[in-house]
Amino acid sequence: MQNPIFTIDAPTAADLTAFYQDGYVAFPGVFTAEGIEGLMAECVSHPQIVDFIGKSDDGRSALPQPYQLLIRDWNNKGFWSDQLFDAPLVKALLQAVINDKYHFCHSTLHVSLRGTPALHFHQDHHHWKHENPINLAERERWYIQMLYYPNGFTRGDRNLSVIPGSHRVSPTPDVTVEKLLAGEYDDVAGRPLKAEALELPPGSMIFLNARTFHAVASKPFDSPQPYRIFLNYIFKEAGPPHRWSQSIPSEWLANANPHRKMLFQREPYTPGCWVQTTQ
Ligand SMILES: [Fe+2]
Questions:
Q1: Which residues span the domain enclosing 88?
Q2: 214 CA from centroid of ligand 1 (Å)
Q3: pLDDT at 277
Q4: Would you call the peptide bond into 174 cis, given omega within 30 degrees of 0 as the criterion?
Q5: How far is the CA of 257 from the centre of ligand 1 (A)?
Q6: In CATH, what number is assigned to the domain containing residue 78?
């Protein structure tokens, strides 16, 4: 393909082994130079981001979250962000882990300015947080987050932290981060569970099992980097909607090849969609 966004087309066997053992695998600097540049340009020209970054101090202080912006659903893709649905590396990772039947769930675009507060350790497999029969049936199914950092991060400056191996601990309400880090679930995980602060260069990706505990540090007011751009593409094993499974714009389907039809032809999340009714 011309103008690929990634420098590689598939994970190595070692990458996949790391993913199964740790619940995530990092691909530092995996973007091509033009991929980083093109993706950043698409992100920072998004009208909501232009408006947010350009706010005055007064305008910003009136917002409930003055220093960070989350765009969900992020639908107006450009040439580079469009590739993240099914670039060869994306396809190879998802097919290796989930097999051939999976769906695109949704994608988000985030910007964090200096002053953004920390996001504490959590897991993101939403079916575990609900008790309907559909949720119970879906609990062990894959929910994968592909996290992209076009401008990278250093430790202590909005870095991602993970607890490797914590995906082996079922996300039930009685599991707390405090108990986890105190060693109470080491036997379940089969290893000592410890927090690990990551550091990644610009153009990096993390392939994350959403059951793995993860957290994000604050962005200090004296950070040398004015803003962090972060993208999240989320995929799920084929089945009923997950939380935030988005409605698919008709234009995405109009031009979809068979693979994209498989990604996009599924039900969106709607309030009440997990409650089965009897005739
Ligand atoms: Fe999360």
A1: 41-264
A2: 6
A3: 63
A4: no
A5: 30
A6: 2.60.120.620
